[in-house]
Write a structure and sequence with these properties.
Blueprint: H1 6-12, H2 23-43, E1 47-48, H3 50-53, E2 55-61, H4 67-76, E3 84-88, E4 92-97, H5 102-116, E5 123-128, H6 130-158, H7 161-185, E6 188-189, H8 191-218, H9 222-225, H10 230-266, H11 271-303, H12 306-349
Helix pairs in contact: 1-10, 2-7, 2-11, 4-5, 6-7, 7-8, 7-11, 8-10, 8-11, 10-11
Length: about 350
């Protein structure tokens, strides 16, 4: 019953969660995540897929396949370098190695054909050069920089420069933490992962723009009213859009989670894991940053302006004056009540006089 109608109470300001007042706690938590991500990137680095570093991909299709037999076949062919072996479905095995000479490739084909008792024609071998991966990496970086510049320009024109700066910092925060999680856990980065990273940017900005639009509505003409500070108006906007952000994030995460846990986990569709994993981590991080990073950062930047400092002083003075007025009015009511009671009770307390005889 406590959650019944919570959205309406948050929107009307009857119930409020003070996100802005706890901004140091949120910033400290985000800073800790950024430090962990930086350490993971510096020590372990990203585990790049074959599309970025080059190598050979061997695909075996047989009635029954398993990773242990595939690893043993590669070792028997003289491949001592670390190989990434994935089981795709129930009858296909994907083996990824470094760039191999033609003689080693022929030996690997023969060893795998013998191990899984299939014709060598059912074994597909592809070689990818590192130049293609470098080209894709450069294009992804150029696309990311261009995206950030265009978005910053648009937000500066549609809203205000400090909103644009806060939104871009939140986006960089989301991408950096997502990349750090990939480095920390050791997930492989593929072109599908890059697509997921770029998709994260759009979703994170969408959620942030929704909150900022409400902030702009609540702070319009705020310096002329002196009823609340910029931080208080921003916190009200966060509470008013909290339920919407939660519902939007939940609806977005449900299909991505089904693809990740059901498609990639239970059904073994490994090709879906790269995209769905990046989306799942990015969507959760984007929701967090729009509430706990972008808006508190915007409020911090705006509260440093002279006009907002003067507004905060006027709001404080007005709050003190209102409390003083309430105390005086309350005291006046009590005093007048007592005088009225004494006036009404005065004649009743006097002794009754006997009427004069004529």
């Amino acid at each position: 019953m406590a959650l019944s109608g919570i959205g309406g109470r948050l929107y009307r300001g009857e119930t409020s969660i003070n996100f802005i007042a706890q901004k140091r706690r949120w910033f400290a938590f985000s800073g800790l995540l950024i430090i962990i991500s930086a350490i993971a990137l510096g020590t372990q680095g990203l585990k790049l897929g074959i599309e970025f570093k080059g190598g050979s991909v061997i695909t075996v299709q047989a009635p029954t396949v398993n990773i242990a037999d595939g690893s043993a076949a590669l070792k028997s062919a003289g491949i001592t370098s670390e190989a990434i072996i994935q089981k795709i479905g129930s009858n296909k095995l994907r083996l990824q190695t470094t760039d191999l000479p033609q003689s080693t490739i022929s030996a690997a084909r023969a060893a795998l054909a013998t191990t899984f008792k299939v014709d060598s024609a059912n074994i597909d071998i592809q070689t990818v050069g590192p130049s293609w991966g470098k080209e894709i990496t450069h294009k992804a970086i150029y696309g990311l920089i261009g995206f950030l510049l265009v978005v910053m320009l648009y937000l500066a024109m549609a809203f205000e420069p400090k909103m644009a700066l806060s939104a871009i910092i939140a986006v960089i925060h989301d991408v950096f933490i997502t990349v750090g999680i990939y480095a920390l856990v050791g997930f492989e980065v593929t072109p599908a992962t890059v697509i997921g990273f770029l998709t994260i940017l759009g979703y994170s900005l969408y959620d942030t723009v929704v909150v900022f639009d409400k902030v702009r509505e609540n702070t319009k003409g705020i310096t002329s009213t002196a009823k609340q500070t910029y931080s208080e108006a921003s916190n009200l906007a966060l509470n008013q859009t909290l339920v919407r952000s939660f519902n939007t994030s939940l609806i977005a995460l449900l299909p991505v989670a089904s693809i990740l846990f059901v498609g990639a986990g239970l059904l073994g569709a490994g090709t879906l894991k790269d995209l769905s994993l990046a989306l799942f981590i990015g969507l959760a991080t984007g929701t967090y940053s729009s509430i706990f990073v972008a808006t508190p950062l915007l409020a911090t930047l705006r509260e440093r302006e002279p006009a907002m400092k003067a507004l905060a002083k006027r709001v404080a003075v007005r709050g003190g004056a209102v409390e003083s007025s309430i105390d005086k009015n309350t005291a006046g009511v009590v005093t007048s009540t007592h005088s009225k009671e004494s006036h009404e009770r005065g004649p009743r307390n006097q002794p009754k006089r006997k009427p004069r005889r004529r």
